[in-house]
Each structure stands twice: as structure tokens, then as C-alpha cells.
Amino acid sequence: MKIWQRYLKRQRALFRTQYQSPKQLFDSACEMLIKCFAVCGGERMKPGYTRRNPRLIFLVTDLILYLFVNLYSIAIVWGSLMDVVFCFVTLGIAIQGLAKIEAFTCPELNDLHLYNVARFTMPPRFPEVEEALFHTAAMCKVFIRILAVAFSIVGIAIYSYAILMPLVEGELSLAFGFYLPFIDYRTPIGFAINWVYQFIQVSEGCIGLMACDTCLLFLIVNATGQMDLIIIYLRRLTELIDSNDAGQNDKKIADLLGDIVIKHLEHTKYVTDMDKLLKKQFFINFSCIIFELVASLAIVVRVWNQFLTVNFNFLTRAITPSNSFLGTQEWPFNDKLVEEIYNVNWYGLSTKHQKTLQQVLLTSQHPVVLSDGFSAIDLYNFVEIYKKIYSYLMVLQNIS
After folding, report:
1. Does the global pTM surpass 0.90?
2. pLDDT tens digits for 241-275?
3. Residue of 100, 77, 101 lying closest to 88 (CA atoms)
4. Could you tell me if 87 and 308 are in contact, meaning their C-beta atoms sit under 8 angstroms apart?
5. Are 207 and 36 in contact (CB under 8 A)?
6. Angle between helices 127-169 and 107-121 (to 10 degrees)
7. Which residues on neighbouring strands pair with residue 371, listed in sequence order?
8. Coil, strand or helix at 213
9. Helix, strand or coil for residue 185?
10. What is the predominant subcellular site recorded for this chain (predicted)?
């Protein structure tokens, strides 16, 4: 944690020399994200965007073809448990891809983005606000760079495996189990066509997943940044109350309390809209992931020595904890917000203002959280699910 804090401190100091304002830094991070989405035709945050662009049409057509290819592969390998499960895993990836396209190309996503941009264009009311905005923008910039490096490493590793596999085995063999129907991959031309097809799938998958995960991260970082501003306003409110001996700050207190209410209402609407936007995507993704994990257990029970198969399936599910981790990040900030409301000098407020602040407190104690429609998206639920799956795995292993 200390290493991470030192790294962030160095990056913020570097960004201070490169960008004159938080808006410039945030715009720079958003430009990088838009370029990632543009590869797949999903740059919804770009002005004048339409879903009817050739890149997105190609991607959707490719995913639909990918679904049929996997169904064809299931029909071909039916009877071989491991091969069928592998086809189900890759089939789930296509379904998840279509769900992400629907969610991250919605007009509602652009509305959330425009609200975030507007926050950076407003003149800061206090000096601390400018620093908080810069911190939010810096976090976005740092995270997109980290994810770019991480997904690049994954892509290079997969490409290396796809290139080295036929060389090591000394025969024409594809890295993945799916291939185009009626094109024999055992012939040089058929192998080249199928290899390029798999190369395209990996490229689209890595870039698309990076763009979607980064966009989700941007949304959550900005949500926590909104709470940072409310906390700053609450601290300033306490200072005004403590120095209001003769009632000279009554108007300032009323204005600031009104701003706190407005900002908290905006934050609640922001998180609610984000939850509505991502709820179906989370449900479909997690349903596919859980189904694939359960299917993997069948291999463990019947073919326990195929440990690599199970490891592969678990590794491909890395997106689950990442999404759960991002959802969990809102909790500490909300607890901090509630604590800061309690720290306000309530006795220095009028009865009317106390009731107003009480409503903010009650709303903060029951915050809107990201969900899949049934339960919150957080690490706690994620860990509980994996504990149950692991216990089932151990029971099945003992029985077998």
C-alpha cells in the first residue's frame, strides 16, 4: 500500500507539470479511453457518435458469427466432455461481449460522461475542491495506463502461445478449440484463415475488455470523487458554524448547506443511473461466469488430472473479481461521508437546517450500490460465491 501511495504521489507531481488544470488531465484520460473504444466502434463518449458505424457493425457481426462457430464446434465435439465445456466457455465470452456492447454504447453512458466533464468545468468553490478534482483526474489517468499495460501483456502472451504452439508440436494446430466451419485447419490455407480469425477475436477481446473495464473504473472513480467534494463542503460547513458566534455566517451556512443537498442528490442520481445502465450487463456476465465455473467442476469430478483445464477456466474469470473490487470501492468513501456528517456541529444549526442535514444523513446511510438485479456487486458477495463453489468442488472430489 505504501508503494502504491508513493507511486500515486509521484504521478500527481508529474501531472502537475504537464497539465494546467484538472479538466485538461481528465480530458487527456478520456481521449485515451475513446481511442480504445474507437477500435471496436464503441466510442459513445465522442460527439456525434452513432451505433451505425462500420467498426461496431463488424464487431457485432463477428460476435454473432462467433456464436454460430461455437455452436458448430459443440455439435462436432459432442461426446467429449472437456471439449464441450471449452466450447461453452468460449460461447459465454461471446454472450458477455454482446451484453457489454449494449451497455457501453447506450446514450445513457454519454449522459454520465457529460456530467463528469461538467464537474471539471465548474469553477471550484474552495481551494480543496480543485485538489480533489485533480486527484480524481489523476486516478483515471493512472488506471488507464495500468490497464493498458496489463491487457497488452495478456495479448502478447496469447499471441506468443498461438505462434509457438504449432512450432512446438510440429503440426498445424490452433491455440483455441473453435474454428470456422467447412475450412479444414489441418491444411496450410485453412490453418492460416483460422489463425487470422482467432487473432482477430483475441485482439477485439483484449481491447474491448480493457475499454469496458476502464470505462467502469472511470465511472466509479468519479462517483467517489463526488463524495470527496461533499466531504470538503461538510468540513467547510463545520468551520462556518464554529465561527458563527454573532450569526454573521447564517447566509453562508444556508447557501453551503443547499449546495451540499444538491450535490448529494446529483450523486445519488448519478449512481442510480449507473446502476440502471450496468445492471443487465452485470447479470448476464455473472450468469455466464457461474455457469462456466459449474461446468468446469464436471471436468474436475470426472477427469481430475486435467488440472490445466480447470486453471484455464478459472483464469478466464478474472474479470469477476475486478468488477467486484471496483464495486466495493464505493463503500469506504460512503462510510467516510457518513462519519463526516456526524462530525458537523449540529447544535450550531437551526432546527430547519438540522432537518435538512438529517435527510442527507439518512440517504447516505442507505446508499445506492451497483448490483446485478439481485445482489450488490462487491467483493464480499464475490468471496461468498467462490467459497460455496470451492466447497462443492471439495465434496465432489471426495465423492469421486
Report:
1. no
2. 988 887 788 899 999 999 999 999 999 999 899 98
3. 77
4. no
5. yes
6. 140
7. 376
8. helix
9. coil
10. membrane
